[in-house]
């Protein structure tokens, strides 16, 4: 599940996780944090190998990185099952990380049969929710006013997440489902059936 922060990904996680054959955890950050960190490790390894053996050492490539990330991602997803107390999910195991919206191509390399559920909320409501969240946490000092935050939210989260996800969706076909937060709010049962 993916979507801009404060736009409903956590709600999707809870709805799907309530189904007895689905386990949804989050946030695993497999593609947006783990893969770049593994890439740094791979680069350092290759550099060291080249230094030690005068350029004759074996180096690792992108397929090796994807293989390592998939092993770790699979272990994380398996943990979602085991920690649920009922590891009998037969329909699906999912991960709710909002940032996946901008790294769908990487996720698609890791899980070529994965399905992607993208929730989109009216950006104005998302900004209001985000601002309220920051206020509750006492973290509004970065933004002098709500208008400043709303502009930041729109540019760096809402627009970029939606654009990146929709661009990547062209390659996914029916493995990509887009939901509107407002539709989910109006009829959660019907929209949940669509997801399942």
Please describe the topology of this protein.
Blueprint: H1 9-17, E1 22-25, H2 30-52, H3 62-83, E2 92-95, H4 104-110, E3 116-120, H5 123-136, H6 146-169, E4 176-180, H7 181-186, H8 188-195
Helix pairs in contact: 2-3, 2-4, 5-6
Counted by DSSP, the helix tally is 8
The fold-level CATH name is Rossmann fold
Number of domains: 1
> Can you tell me the residue ranges where pLDDT is under 50 for at least 5 consecutive residues?
none
Strand content: 5-15%
User: Average pLDDT, to the nearest integer?
Assistant: 92
Percent of residues in helical segments? 55-70%
Secondary-structure-derived class: mainly alpha
Give the H and E element order. HEHHEHEHHEHH
Radius of gyration: 19 Å
CATH H-level superfamily title: P-loop containing nucleotide triphosphate hydrolases
Shape: globular
CATH class division: Alpha Beta
- What is the CATH-assigned architecture? 3-Layer(aba) Sandwich
Through-space gap between termini: 12 Å
Number of DSSP-assigned strands: 4
The side-by-side strand order for the widest beta sheet comes to 1-2
Largest sheet properties: 2 strands, parallel
Q: Could you characterize the architecture of this molecule?
A:
With 196 residues, the protein is mostly helical. The protein has a single domain (9-195), classed as P-loop containing nucleotide triphosphate hydrolases (Rossmann fold). 58% of the residues lie in helices and 9% in strands. The protein contains eight helices and four strands, in the order H-E-H-H-E-H-E-H-H-E-H-H. 26% of the residues are buried.
């Amino acid at each position: 599940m993916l979507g801009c922060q404060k736009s409903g990904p956590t709600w999707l996680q809870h709805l799907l996780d309530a189904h007895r054959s689905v386990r949804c955890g989050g946030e695993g950050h497999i593609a947006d944090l783990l893969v770049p960190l593994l890439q740094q490790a791979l680069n350092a390894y290759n550099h060291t190998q080249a230094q030690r053996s005068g350029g004759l050492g074996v180096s690792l490539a992108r397929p090796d990185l994807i293989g390592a990330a998939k092993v770790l991602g699979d272990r994380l997803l398996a943990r979602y099952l085991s920690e649920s107390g009922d590891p009998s999910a037969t329909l699906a195991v999912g991960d709710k990380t909002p940032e996946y919206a901008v790294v769908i191509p990487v996720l698609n390399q890791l899980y070529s049969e994965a399905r992607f559920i993208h929730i989109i909320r009216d950006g104005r409501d998302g900004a209001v929710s985000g601002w309220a969240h920051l206020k509750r946490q006492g973290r509004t000092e970065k933004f002098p006013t709500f208008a400043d935050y709303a502009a930041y939210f729109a540019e760096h989260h809402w627009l970029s997440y939606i654009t990146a996800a929709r661009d990547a969706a062209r390659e996914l076909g029916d493995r990509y489902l887009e939901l509107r937060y407002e539709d989910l709010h109006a009829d959660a049962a019907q929209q949940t059936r669509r997801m399942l």
